[in-house]
Amino acid sequence: MTRRERLLATLRGEPVDRPAVNFYELNGFTQNPADSDPFNIFSHPSWQPLLELTRERTDVLVFGHVGFRTEPPNPLGEVTETKDWIDEQGSRQVHRTVRIGKRTLTSHQRLDRDIHTWWTTEHLLKNQEDFEAWLELPMGGPAADPDPSPVLAMDQRVGDSGLVMLDTCDPLCMVAPLFHMEEYTIIAMTEPALFRRALDKCAAWLFPRIAQIARVLPGRLWRIYGPEYASPPYLPPRLFAEFVVPYVSEMVRIIHGTGGYVRVHSHGRLKDILDHICATGCMGLDPIEPPHQGDVTMAYVREKYGRQLVLFGNLEIADIEGLPTAQLAAKVETALREGTAGTGRGMVLMPSAAPTAACCQFRRCAITRRSWKWWTPGQSTGSSGGWGFAIFHLLFAIGLQTL
Question: Between the CA of residue 254 and those of 28, 145, 197, 222, 281, what are the distances in Å?
Answer without folding.
Answer: 30, 17, 21, 11, 11
